[in-house]
Every structure is written in structure tokens, then in C-alpha cells.
Amino acid sequence: MENQLIDLVTDLKDTSDNLSAWDIAEKYFENLQFGAINCGVMEKGDGALVGFFSNMSAGWMAHYLDSGYDQCDPLIKHVVDGKPDSLFLQENKDLFTTSDPQRSGNMFREVEQEGIRSSVVSPFQQPSSRHIVGINLGSALPTAEFLRLVRSNRMEILVGLALVQNYLMTVWSDLRRQGPWFPVQSENTILTPREREVLLWLSQGLRNDRISEKMNVAVVTVNFHMQSIKQKLEAKTREHAVAIAVSRNLIEP
């Protein structure tokens, strides 16, 4: 196991390809008998889920998000709450029936049907970052065997998680444009084409009067779009709105 950890450190250091780095991390944890690897990126302020890196199928991830499972997933809440301890799926399955019993119950059953019988989640934050990263490692092993696996490989798991999480925090804005990235956009954060255009001009430093000329609309219309944008993104200022839109990949200035 020590050799695998050394290889992980070396490979992550040597690679300049973000997708290759994700493959390296995936193979490392697969060698430790983890079949499902999900990495959630959340806003630090309100705990809103921005999106996932995942080695699970695109179909499953789309179903997970369409079903609103991210809104009742105790693993996500565990990360957002900043709890440092590990959370095990089977041992804590009662957590899946707290906030939304029907939805969370469906999620728990479907996760088991996907072959994930045991799972451990690790939260990670950097003081200088606006985001929280949580990696969830799933396995088909029964809980008792899974616990023995985790305990016997504790150092390799913890160090591996720290290395991968730190790397993802550094390059996640690039990775999400390449994949395997599954974005989360709730209805109140989806911008109209006109609102995106306003933000694009705003990101280039234009004032409302110049934006109205570019878009061939009245200044009052631009003001209306700006108020709608700030409300949807819960932004305090115009600059804040641009920063949020860029961080969530809603625009590319």
C-alpha cells in the first residue's frame, strides 16, 4: 500500500493533464476496493451544491440530480456541516429518513441497487477558498468488512483523500469544463439568455448605459435584468454577481 501512495504522490505531481489526474485518483481508490468515487463541490457560504466529479454513470448522476437527491443526501449535509468524522452508509442509514422520508428512502434503496452497500465521506476545506470539497467513497463490501478495510488502510485512505481533495480544489474550474463534471443548477439560478448577455458585458467592465447600447435596449431594461440577476444569484453587488456566475460556470468571460 505504501508503494501505491508514493505512486499517487508522484503521478499527481508529474501530470499536467487534469483528466489524467482524475483517472489517477480513481485507480488509486479502486485498488483499495472502492468502486464508487464521488466528489461534491459546495459553496462555503450557503452550503449549496455546485456539482459533482464522479466515476458513476452519467445516467445515474442525471437521475440523482433530477430526483433532487442532492437536497436530502445526508452525506452532503455532513460535509456542509463541517463534521470531521467519517460517515458510514449502512451504520447511519437512519439519516436517510430524516428530512424527506419518501425521497431519502428511495435514494437509499437505489444506492443499494447500484451496488453500494457501504460508504465513507470525507469533508475538506481550505480557508482561502470559497468552496468545500467532500469525497464519498462507496464499496460493495458489507459494513463489517468495509470497516476492517478502512481501519487497515487508514493512512493510505486519509493521505490519498487529502492529496486528491487538495488537487481538485486547485484545478476544479478547469476540470468542470472537461469532465467528468455534473453541474447542479436550481431553477432560481438559471439565467435567461438576456441576463447572461448582460453579465458578459458587465464582466468586461461596461456600465449599464454602454450595455444598453450594445444590446440595443433601454437602460431601464438593463437595470431590470441586473436586479433579476442579483436576486437569482443572491449577489450583493454587480461585481459579486459576475464572480458567482463565473464560479458556477454560468458564463465564460
From TrEMBL:
Keywords per UniProt: DNA-binding, Transcription, Transcription regulation
GO biological process assignments: regulation of DNA-templated transcription
GO terms assigned for molecular function: DNA binding
Keyword DNA-binding: yes
Residue ranges constituting the HTH luxR-type domain according to the UniProt record: 184-249
InterPro entries: Sig_transdc_resp-reg_C-effctor, TF_LuxR_autoind-bd_dom, TF_LuxR_autoind-bd_dom_sf, Tscrpt_reg_LuxR_C, WH-like_DNA-bd_sf
Pfam families the UniProt entry points to: Autoind_bind, GerE
Tagged with keyword Transcription: yes
PANTHER family, per database record: DNA-BINDING TRANSCRIPTIONAL ACTIVATOR DEVR_DOSR (PTHR44688), HTH LUXR-TYPE DOMAIN-CONTAINING PROTEIN (PTHR44688:SF25)
Name of this protein: HTH luxR-type domain-containing protein
Annotated source species: Denitrobaculum tricleocarpae
